[in-house]
Write a structure and sequence with these properties.
Layout (H helix, E strand, L loop, with lengths): L4 H10 L6 H12 L7 E9 L5 E15 L2 E11 L9 E4 L5 E3 L15 H4 L8 H14 L3 E3 L10 H21 L4 H141 L8 H4 L5 H28 L5 H36 L1
Antiparallel strand pairs: 1-2, 2-3, 3-4, 5-6
Helix pairs in contact: 5-6, 6-8, 8-9
């Protein structure tokens, strides 16, 4: 569809007022070229908002058709397209001609002429347009016009009985005159004219009386039709409100159902996450306890190592002192200085040497750990291995010592 050049010209003058000027041009052109908007003209005018702001926008001003009591009237209208159109609905005003006034407390027109109909309240971007808006306004105003006119009252017709009295007076006068001038031809002609005039007046009075009765009957019928239309409009609005209420209830229920499902899923996910955290915390606690126990064991080994180191150092000092005292003694190999009395004593000697060697190894492992030449994992692995071996050696020594003590006791 080719756009209306009048609309295109006005939009070019307005500049960047509209976010979607193509849609504005298309909708305005569709209304101006339709049968309901052919008496509208596009102009640029100021739109004053309720918040006090104002802006120059496109206005479609002119008349729309209103059918009332079998007659089509032209209602003056101004349809403003705000800057956010079509996201925002049009702003419509009823305008007044001479001797035309707004009705007080009209259901759909305010005291300033602003139109408020359900179609504007339900306006959406993709389902409403200007042509349907004008049709809706024509329908609403036809059921209940927003304006009325005030004109000077017409002069009432004379009563029927007055016309009859005039006719009787005329007939009496004619009879009297006829008795005095019965032979006059002009008098007969004048008499006939007066009778015709009286009959015409009677017919006119009767016609006016009949017209008044018919007008009253039409007014009563029109009032009845208006009441029927009002009731029909009220019933339509009630059905519309019920439908909107049902749609709102359905949407609300569906929203709450979806929200309940999402909340339930979120609660379940939080519960699973909580269980995972509890399980992880229990594993961490178990690892902490195991490390604390291992720490206690290592501290025990460290304490034993320190005690053994002190004992070895004391033995070394005493040995050095004995060596200093026996300078004259010949150097004899250590293996020859100690001669076991029996096989068990030989085993004790070998095990004691091995125990001392293991103690030395543990000492130097600790020194290597402190000096940073050995990591904790390797240190711990070697300490466990050597400590286990030393434990077996010491147990073996204790066992041999017990056997020797039992033999000594048995000899006594």
């Amino acid at each position: 569809m080719v756009n209306d050049p009048r609309v295109t010209e006005q939009l070019s003058h307005l500049g960047g007022v509209y976010r979607d000027p193509v849609r504005v041009d298309r909708d305005a052109t569709a209304l101006l070229r339709s049968s309901v908007g052919e008496h509208l003209t596009p102009v640029a005018a100021e739109l004053y908002e309720d918040n006090g702001s104002h802006s120059t926008v496109l206005v479609l001003q002119g008349t729309i058709a209103v059918d009332f009591r079998g007659t089509t009237y032209r209602q003056l209208m101004e349809i403003y397209l705000p800057g956010r159109y079509p996201q925002r609905p049009p702003v419509c005003y009823v305008r007044l001609a001479e001797h035309i006034y707004l009705k007080n407390n009209h259901e759909h027109v305010g005291s300033d002429g602003k139109v408020d109909i359900p179609y504007l309240d339900e306006w959406t971007l993709h389902h409403h347009n200007l042509v349907e808006l004008v049709i809706q306004m024509s329908s609403v105003f036809s059921a209940d016009p927003p304006v009325f006119s005030r004109t000077s009252a017409a002069t009432p017709p004379p009563p029927a009985y007055a016309a009859a009295a005039v006719y009787n007076d005329t007939r009496s006068s004619t009879t009297t005159t006829n008795s005095n001038h019965g032979s006059s031809i002009s008098y007969q002609r004048e008499k006939r004219q007066r009778e015709v005039e009286a009959e015409r007046r009677l017919a006119q009075d009767a016609a006016e009386a009949n017209a008044a009765v018919a007008a009253a009957r039409r007014a009563a019928q029109a009032e009845q039709e208006r009441e029927v239309q009002r009731l029909a409009q009220q019933a339509w609005e009630e059905r519309r409100i019920d439908q909107l209420r049902q749609n709102l209830t359905f949407k609300t229920q569906r929203h709450f159902v979806e929200l309940s499902k999402e909340t339930q899923q979120q609660v379940q996910a939080d519960e699973r996450h909580k269980q995972l955290l509890i399980h992880a915390e229990s594993k961490i606690d178990a690892q902490i306890k195991a490390l604390e126990k291992e720490k206690e064991t290592l501290e025990g080994h460290l304490s034993t190592t320190r005690e053994k180191s002190i004992a070895i150092k004391a033995w070394v000092r005493s040995h050095k002192e004995r060596l200093a005292e026996s300078k004259e003694a010949e150097a004899v190999p250590a293996d020859k200085l100690v001669q076991p009395a029996s096989e068990l004593h030989g085993q004790m000697l070998a095990l004691a040497a091995e125990n001392a060697a293991l103690t030395d190894v543990l000492y130097f492992l600790d020194r290597g750990l402190y000096a940073g030449k050995l990591d904790a994992v390797a240190h711990l692995k070697q300490v466990r291995k050597l400590a286990k071996k030393q434990f077996l050696v010491q147990a073996h020594l204790i066992k041999i010592n017990q056997v020797l003590l039992d033999r000594s006791n048995s000899r006594r």
